């Protein structure tokens, strides 16, 4: 089958190990898993980490990349794939399972004509969402949904700062936060990208690190070292910094004085549950909000899509589409 997979890893030149080509369909990796014929698959920064050798041990190569897909299951149903795979017998919130894994970490991922998943790892794709829109949900949109409404526990009328303007999680947070009645502020590195965040629905935008006119109830942090100190200054006493990533580095000075003296909550969060994925889908249908897709490319152009993601030349999500079987 056609797939985009990691055949090698290089911390500095991650695209060196990327192959877009034929690979044998592995069949069900575990008994009872079901195939989903992929119609659209979105890229994530996670795929670049895998190609850099972060989170994917070299002895698992070659590994089909990708956490996100929408497609057709073996019953002919249109579905969105849930990328968090819990260990057998795990009950409850699968993101808290210490042995949980994401598709493309232990089991082949979604950037392929077929992905195999546990039978509970799909939710119905509503007809209101296009294939490309549905493919954006499992990682960036689910992560932003859980950051906003679980980790930061935000309610309509609250003010949230999103660090980063055009990333997958950042744009998802703007779309979902705006639709949920939050006051959404964005800090980005580039004036033109900040303008696009305004057009997307942010109420106000500021240069990265800028002094803000007021403090915020919560900060959504996926940038890490480059923005952490600013996030600590931006959040109000008793507010929350909800953290799901560290693109620019994971070891900033913690500044614990600010954390305890101002009773700041630091809430880590990873992906979301399959139930939250269902609620996210329902929220989009009910609100009319839709994922921001930067570009939909044919699967054969996957290498170009990866290049754009690596260059930071993306505003929203990149989606690869496959023809109907
Ligand atoms: N824990 C989880 O479940 C989870 C889920 C999804 C993602 N993540 C992590 O979250 C991070 C973002 O993922 P993504 O897919 O949204 O990535 P992405 O689409 O590549 O976006 C990267 C974002 O980081 C910002 N950025 C990068 N370097 C920066 C710097 N030096 N200063 C300020 N902003 C900077 C960019 O801001 P501009 O647009 O302003 O350039 C952009 O918004 C990644 O590290 C990823 O691994 C974690």
TrEMBL record:
It comes from the Bacteria. SUPFAM superfamilies: GroES-like (SSF50129), NAD(P)-binding Rossmann-fold domains (SSF51735). Residues 13-320 form the Enoyl reductase (ER) domain. PANTHER family: DEHYDROGENASE, PUTATIVE (AFU_ORTHOLOGUE AFUA_2G13270)-RELATED (PTHR45033:SF3), PTHR45033. This is Zinc-binding dehydrogenase.
């Amino acid at each position: 089958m056609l797939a985009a997979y990691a055949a090698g890893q290089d911390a500095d030149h991650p695209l060196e190990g990327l192959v877009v080509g034929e690979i044998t369909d592995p069949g069900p990796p575990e008994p009872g898993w079901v195939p989903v014929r992929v119609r659209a698959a979105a890229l994530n920064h996670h795929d670049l980490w895998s190609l850099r050798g972060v989170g994917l041990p070299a002895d698992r190569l070659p590994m089909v990349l990708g956490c996100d897909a929408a497609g057709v299951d073996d019953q002919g149903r249109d579905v969105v794939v849930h990328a968090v795979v819990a260990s057998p017998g795990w009950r409850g919130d699968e993101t808290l399972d210490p042995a949980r894994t994401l598709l493309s970490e232990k089991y082949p991922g979604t950037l392929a004509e077929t992905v195999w998943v546990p039978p509970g790892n799909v939710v119905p794709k509503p007809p209101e969402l296009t294939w490309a829109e549905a493919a954006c949900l499992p990682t960036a949109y689910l992560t932003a949904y859980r950051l906003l409404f679980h980790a930061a526990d935000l309610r309509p009328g609250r003010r949230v700062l999103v660090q980063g303007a055009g990333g997958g999680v950042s744009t998802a947070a703007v779309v979902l936060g705006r639709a949920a009645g939050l006051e959404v502020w964005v800090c980005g590195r580039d004036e033109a990208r900040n303008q696009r965040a305004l057009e997307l629905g942010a109420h106000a935008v500021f240069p990265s690190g800028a002094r803000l006119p007021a403090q915020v109830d919560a900060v959504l942090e996926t940038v890490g070292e480059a923005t952490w100190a600013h996030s600590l200054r931006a959040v109000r006493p008793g507010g929350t910094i909800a953290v799901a990533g560290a693109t620019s580095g994971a070891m900033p000075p913690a500044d614990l004085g600010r954390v305890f003296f101002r009773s700041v909550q630091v809430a880590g969060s990873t992906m979301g549950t399959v139930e939250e994925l269902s609620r996210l889908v329902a929220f989009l249908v009910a609100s009319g909000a839709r994922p921001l897709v930067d570009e939909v490319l044919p699967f054969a152009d996957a290498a170009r899509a990866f290049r754009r993601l690596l260059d930071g030349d993306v505003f929203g999500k990149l989606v690869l589409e496959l023809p109907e079987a």
